[in-house]
Structure formats: C-alpha cells, structure tokens
C-alpha cells in the first residue's frame, strides 16, 4: 500500500505529495531561519500523517502539545520524570504504539539534552518484536546534535549526540524514521545531517548555510542566493519521498496551533501617562510567582569552589576536601580513611536512580566531590581501584565479604582476569551462585553493565560463554542455569525475563 500525504501546493498549483512509506525509509531534514515556517511545516507533516503512522515528537519549546487535543497524542512532561523513567516510558510507547509529545519546555538546555537522550535511547533499545514504524520528529535538532561543544557539560553533549546519531544512522532497521529540523545547518553535527535523504530547505541568510543547502540539493553555488528570497512557509524540496529534482512548494494550512504568541501588531492601550505610571510603579503585596525552572546541574568545579568559599579564612582544602592551616601537611598524610567510609560514600553515589547508567569517570568525579564535602580522602582510591570497587557494588556484593571470605577472594581474582566492563556481570553471577539464588535476568545483567536493554544483557552472557568464563544450559523446565567454570559454582534455575519489572526498584518508575 502506498500512502501519500498532502504537504501543500507546488509553484504550478498542483498538490505537493510526500510518499510516507519512502519517508519512513529515508528520513527528512528541514532547515530554515527562525520565522521561516519550520514548525508550521512539521505540524502539517504530523497532522497529515497522524492517521497512518505512530509519532513521537521531541519538543523543546512545548509548541506541539496542542496535537493532543485533536489527534490524541499523549503529552509527557520530561521535568516530572527521571532519565530512567523516561527510558521505560519510551519502551512502553513502542510496545503499545501510542503517539506522544515529549515536552521539554520546563528544563534548562543541559537537562533537555539528557532527558531527550534517555527517551530516544528507550525507543532505540526495544526488542525486535516491537520494531513498529515510528516517525520521530525532533525540533531544534541543533540543540541535541551540536556540531561543536558549547556551554553544556561534555557528558550531556555526548549522550545527546550519541542518541541522535543512533536515530539517524541506525534507527531505520528498528522502524525509527528521523525527521529533524534546524535553524542552521552549520550548527548541526554533520554525521547526523548526512543520513537524511529528503530535504526541505527554507529561508536562510548566512552564506555558509546557503552554500550547504545548495550542496545538499545538488544546486550550483550561484543558485544559493535564492534561499534569501523565500517567503515564510515556502521551501525547496528534494528527495525520494518528495521529488527527484528540486521542487518549490508552499506548505498548506494546519488544524492545530501553537501556544506561543505570533509577531502580530496590536494597538497599544490608551491609558493616560499618569495611570500608566501608577500601574508600573505599584508594588504588589503578593506578587505573582514566575514558573520555577530547574537550574543547570552544577559542574564539579562549581561544587568544589563553593566548598572552598565556605572554609574559614586562613585555611585551604587539600585533595580530600578537608580544611588545613596554611603550611600544614595535607590531611591525607596524617589521617587514614577507613574502607567502610569509602564504601558508604560509594553506595550514596549509586543511590541516584540514573547512576547505574553513567560511565565510571563521571561517577568517580561525583564520588570525589562527596568525599571532599565530608572531609574524606577520596584520593585513596584512584580511578582503577574505584572501578574495581564499583564492579563489586554494582553486583550487590558486600565489600567486606570480598576481603574476609576466601571464596569471594577467588571470585574477585577470577573477575579481575576479565575486561573491566564485564567484571560486575561476573560478580553478579557469582553472588547468585554463592547464595543459591536463581540466575539473574537479562535485564539485571544489562543493568550491571550500565545498559537498559535486555538484548544487551543476553549478548554479554553469550560473550562470556564464548570466552570460556561461564557455561549456560537449560534445565528440564526451560529455565536458565549459569555455571562459573573457574569457581565450579552454579546458579539456581532462573528465567531470562525480568521478574521485578514495574515493582519500583532503583531503576524503575517508583
């Protein structure tokens, strides 16, 4: 079945049709300066295709929430959910084939990037059984896939760019069809823009953007000047879903509207100057409160600077964060921190719902900051030792048991022979075998590796089996049993499916 949606009219007055099936296979890039009609174009595309395909809209300004009133989209307020929760919500969106709008308007830029990346990751990591066609529309894509580092933290930029790259480069086989809109092509990461095969180019004025738009449309450089003369709502189209040759079209009307104010002139109020002065200089006893906005996540440097400012005059903070008098030896040289205190702070770091899915370097910085705030010498653990301790903690093993129990020391030695990113998984299996517990589920194994994908967990088990570290078999009831060859331990039978999903654990919604 071929479905064509009406995007408007061409210069000759004919309908400008877009092949929806071809769009799902080849993706779309929309470019135009502010006021060129990009959001109007996206709204037209969403409205026309809503009866035919499931949709997910990444909406940084809250412009598309009005789709819910007419087309039944579910609006998800990103500020009300953690990253882990948004990833689970995205999985249920694909599972139940519900069209959604992810509203990011109440968040600062860095948090918008993190929440959007978590949601896109949830769409991407679904099992093959749920790879239904899904149109993923990202407005202001240059924010989520920037071409260069900006004012946000590098970690936020990397995770957001990685999610956008997965959407545009690897999403097609998973049923994800990316539609991205940007104000400037020069601000958008090239590896993200390059994966689109369909283009709609609107009004733009900067030479570099006009030149790139002309190159993408296969036009000569001297023709690039035409992009300055385009009216609002007029675009040049090219691509297998639109036209094999550059085609000028005008976007048609829409049913829903934006909540933002338009640039329309209104007459000024006819208040006399005296009344106007009284109005603006009157101080209300109970002023209306502005909506609260979440602050940017403070950087490590910001937190450390605030600690230093809080110290009494004439003192300074050493690497452990404890104040010392000028000329005195560092506290770490005379005070030894007990390992139990370090384990306590490590558990505090891992209590963050999103901590399980952050890389070790970021968690290490968080650990050092907490140590400094508590006057603990966190430098007793370098990054390598921290990773070793982190693997034990992620496996749910008591660190004291690793040092006192000879069997656990054997398990730790066997884990140390594996790559760092697999040690937590091996110790998780060892803990289950030692306690006589059922084999962990695929999702539990994936979590120990910092992933939310059960398929990833199963793949890691297969890899360990291929390396000879474990053996996998099924019992008479089809349940999975894992044996650890170096230890001669074996787990109890367990199901690969996650039996604790939705029970409100550390990684759940509750």
From TrEMBL:
Domain Helicase HerA central span(s) in chain numbering: 11-108
Protein name (Swiss-Prot/TrEMBL): Helicase HerA central domain-containing protein
InterPro entries: ATPase_Atu1862_pred (IPR014588), HerA-like (IPR008571), HerA_central (IPR002789), P-loop_NTPase (IPR027417)
Pfam families named in the record: DUF87
CDD domains in UniProt: TrwB_TraG_TraD_VirD4 (cd01127)
PANTHER family: HELICASE MJ1565-RELATED (PTHR42957:SF1)
Domain of life: Bacteria
Chain segments carrying region Disordered: 491-510
């Amino acid at each position: 079945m071929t479905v064509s949606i009406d995007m408007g009219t061409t210069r000759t007055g004919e309908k400008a049709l877009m092949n929806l099936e071809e769009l799902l296979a080849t993706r779309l890039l929309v470019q135009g300066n502010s006021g060129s009609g990009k959001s109007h174009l996206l709204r037209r595309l969403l409205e026309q295709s809503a009866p035919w395909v499931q949709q997910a809209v990444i909406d940084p300004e809250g412009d598309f929430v009005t789709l819910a009133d007419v087309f039944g989209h579910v609006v998800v307020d990103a500020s009300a959910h953690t990253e882990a929760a948004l990833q689970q919500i995205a999985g249920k969106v694909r599972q139940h084939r519900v069209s959604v709008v992810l509203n990011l308007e109440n968040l600062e830029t860095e948090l918008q990037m993190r929440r959007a990346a978590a949601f896109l990751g949830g769409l991407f990591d679904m099992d093959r059984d749920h790879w239904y066609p899904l149109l993923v529309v990202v407005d202001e894509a240059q924010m989520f896939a920037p071409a260069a580092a900006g004012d946000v933290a590098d970690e936020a930029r990397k995770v957001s760019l990685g999610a956008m790259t997965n959407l545009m480069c690897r999403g097609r086989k998973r049923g994800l069809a990316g539609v991205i809109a940007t104000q400037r092509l020069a601000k958008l990461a090239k590896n993200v823009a390059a994966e689109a095969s369909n283009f709609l180019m609107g009004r733009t004025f900067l030479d570099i953007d006009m030149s790139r738009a002309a190159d993408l449309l296969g036009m000569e450089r001297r023709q690039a000047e035409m992009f300055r003369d385009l009216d609002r709502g007029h675009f040049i189209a090219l691509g297998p879903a639109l036209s094999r040759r550059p085609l000028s079209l005008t976007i048609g009307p829409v049913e829903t509207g934006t909540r933002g104010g338009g640039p329309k002139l209104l007459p000024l109020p006819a208040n006399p100057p005296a009344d106007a002065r009284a109005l603006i200089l009157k101080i209300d006893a109970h002023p209306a409160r502005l909506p609260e906005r979440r602050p940017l996540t403070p950087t490590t440097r910001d937190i450390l600077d605030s600690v230093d400012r809080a110290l009494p005059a004439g003192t300074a903070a050493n690497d452990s964060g404890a104040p010392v008098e000028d000329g005195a030896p560092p506290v770490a040289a005379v005070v030894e921190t007990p390992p139990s205190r370090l384990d306590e702070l490590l558990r505090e770091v891992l209590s963050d719902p999103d901590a399980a899915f952050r890389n070790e370097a970021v968690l290490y910085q968080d650990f050092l900051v907490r140590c400094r705030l508590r006057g603990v010498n966190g430098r007793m653990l370098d990054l390598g030792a921290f990773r070793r301790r982190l693997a034990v903690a992620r496996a749910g093993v008591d660190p004291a048991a690793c040092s006192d129990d000879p069997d656990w020391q054997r398990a730790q030695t066997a884990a140390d022979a594996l790559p760092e990113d697999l040690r937590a998984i091996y110790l998780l299996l060892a803990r289950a075998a030692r306690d006589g517990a059922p084999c962990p589920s695929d999702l539990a194994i994936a979590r120990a590796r910092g992933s939310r994908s059960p398929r990833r967990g199963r793949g890691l088990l297969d890899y360990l089996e291929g390396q000879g570290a474990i053996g996998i078999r099924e019992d008479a009831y089809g349940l999975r049993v894992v044996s650890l060859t170096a230890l001669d331990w074996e787990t109890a039978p367990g199901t690969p499916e996650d039996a604790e999903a939705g029970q409100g654990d550390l990684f759940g919604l509750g």
